[in-house]
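Justification of resources, computational component.

The compute hours requested in this renewal are based largely on the per-chain cost of generating structure records like the one below. Each record pairs the submitted sequence with a full structure-token output. That output is archived, and it is also reused by downstream analysis tasks.
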Amino acid sequence: MTNRSGVLTSAKSPIFIVGLFCLLLLVSCSKGDNPDDVTIEFWTALSENNLEEAKYYSTDASAELFDEKVRNASFQIGKVRYDCDGATVVTRLVRQSAETSSTFNTYLVRDQDEDRWKVDYRHTLKNIDRVADKRFKNLIKTTKESGKSAKVSLWSFIKELGHSIAQLFKNMKERLLR
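The structure output for this chain reads:
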């Protein structure tokens, strides 16, 4: 079946099927329910200590894990990646109180019952802990390297001081024997 302009309009037409798919995709994404918006709303709610709103944007198992570590923090989001299980949003957390920042992945899953994205805070926390653990290990490594450097410098100073003291005693002995 064709319309006046000669375009196939049959339900079996590939053009019709592709058009229908695009329309469904447009409608499903136009609700404002996308991973980056949900991520921003979730982190903003936690930052403002609005736990009820944070619960709305997260999985049911996540709510028990909320803490005050992110209170009054600001957030920036980056690239969104989709996979078969959900989506990942690169998130940068900036804590004003400590003037520190960290970058990690916020994990989201699609709630099939409510047909919307939700933050999997439990999975996200594991990622935040890995990032913090990596930073801590780097800090320890840097401290050890600084310690080794300080140890070498200290030994050099002690040797030099020992030579100077030995020279001082030698000079004093020579003066006394004259």
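The two ends are 125 Å apart (CA to CA). The beta strands are 73-82, 87-95, 100-111, 116-119.
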